[in-house]
Design brief:
CATH class of the largest domain: Alpha Beta
Distance between the termini: 19 Å
Largest sheet: 5 strands, mixed
Strand order of the largest sheet: 1-7-6-4-5
Bound molecules: coenzyme A
CATH superfamily of the largest domain: Thiolase/Chalcone synthase
Helix content: 25-40%
Order of helices and strands: EEHHEHEHEHEEHEEEHEHHHEE
Number of helices: 10
Number of domains: 2
Strand content: 15-25%
Shape: globular
Radius of gyration: 19 Å
CATH architecture of the largest domain: 3-Layer(aba) Sandwich
Structural class: alpha/beta
């Protein structure tokens, strides 16, 4: 992409619910156990949203933290781009609710629907608007309340997913002097659209249809098929991001927290130091669009993002969609 204005990340933030759900908690309501979940996924616990909160609340709290870190106020924002598949309503957008919550009255606000690639899609959209000179300060968010849309008795899906949100404030690099986004790739393969799907709530599936099926209110996941795709795509995207770079100059790789074994499977195909790969799936599970920005913020807090060194973000998920971003921190 030709960039009239190089774009930087001026601040990051996160919000995860306080309610912890361990593997043992799940084993009380479905036929599973801690050993199976830990060995097959790396997940030990996940967070589920409190009953009196919604997806937009998580997004708002993460956004407030990112704004504070950036030194900007809500009225400085001229756009909010938000990735989610578990928004408060089918419409209007969660981004509009966040705009209202923040008092970001000068910001246009809209959602993008790219599942686990939602944050990278929001980030790339934000970057494109700033790079072209159309916007100056943009908030990119990934947020999910997936516990509200999984069948909590289905061991094939409920064990994997968790709730949470992450956010980043993007500005012209000349305005913030850090986190310069060097390149981003997004891709899709719609032939895999039924591998991870939530049919109900869309207009093709409705309550009074002859073939109404209540299970269609929940995420339906063909985990084994996604597994193969995920290992290959993660390796391919990290390779693309690091092409031509000295691996020693890469300080951090922030992958979508999909499954510990998928991350390890991808790394086996690459010349990458495992120590540089941020993993928090043991604590949060897969938070879809929240996954990458939560891990990015934690890496930021832990001082793993070293000024002048490269940071790689990589994600993939329902659609199928995938993406990667290379940043010079
Ligand atoms: N607890 C105990 N046993 C379970 C189980 C659970 N939660 N889930 C499945 N099993 C059983 C299966 O019934 C199967 O038993 P069988 O061999 O007697 O038939 C066995 O464990 C293996 O099942 P399988 O589905 O092959 O396991 P897996 O190693 O592929 O792990 C996932 C399942 C879902 C964890 C894994 O495929 C995965 O992470 N996929 C990608 C996740 C994804 O799609 N995320 C969203 C998009 S980013």
């Amino acid at each position: 992409m030709t960039q009239l204005h190089p774009v930087g990340i001026a601040g990051t933030g996160l919000c995860v619910p306080s309610r912890r759900v361990t593997n043992d908690d799940l084993a009380k309501v479905m036929d599973t156990n801690d050993e199976w979940i830990t060995q097959r996924t790396g997940i030990r616990e996940r967070r589920w949203i409190e009953d009196d909160r919604n997806c937009s609340d998580l997004a708002t709290d993460a956004a407030r933290q990112a704004l504070e870190a950036s030194g900007l106020g809500p009225e400085d924002l001229d756009m909010i781009v938000l990735g989610t598949v578990s928004g408060d309503c089918v419409f209007p957008s969660v981004a509009c609710q966040v705009q209202e919550n923040l008092g970001a009255k000068n910001a246009a606000a809209f959602d993008v629907n790219a599942a686990c690639t939602g944050f990278l899609t929001a980030l790339h959209t934000a970057q494109a608007f700033i790079a072209s000179g159309t916007a100056r300060n943009v908030l990119a968010i990934g947020t999910e309340a997936l516990s509200r849309i999984v069948d909590k008795t289905d061991r094939g899906s409920a064990i994997i997913f968790g709730d949470g949100a992450g956010a980043a404030v993007l500005r012209r690099h000349e305005d913030c002097g850090r986190g310069e986004i060097l390149k981003t790739h997004l891709g899709s393969d719609g032939s895999g659209h039924d591998l991870i799907i939530l049919p109900m709530g869309g207009s093709a599936h409705f309550h009074n249809m002859p073939s109404y099926d209540p299970s269609k209110h929940f995420i339906q996941l063909k985990g084994r098929e996604v597994y193969r795709f995920a290992v290959n795509k993660m390796a391919e995207m990290i390779r693309w991001a690091m092409d031509g770079l000295d691996p020693d100059e890469v300080c951090c790789i922030v992958p979508h927290q999909v499954n510990q074994r998928i991350i390890e499977g991808a790394l086996e195909r690459l010349d990458v130091d495992e120590e540089k790969v941020v993993v928090n799936i043991d604590r949060y599970g897969n938070t879809s669009a929240g996954s990458v920005p939560i891990a990015l913020h934690e890496a930021n807090e832990r001082g793993l993002l070293i000024p002048g060194k490269y940071v790689v973000l990589v994600a993939f998920g329902a659609g199928l969609n995938w993406g990667a971003t290379l940043i010079r921190w």
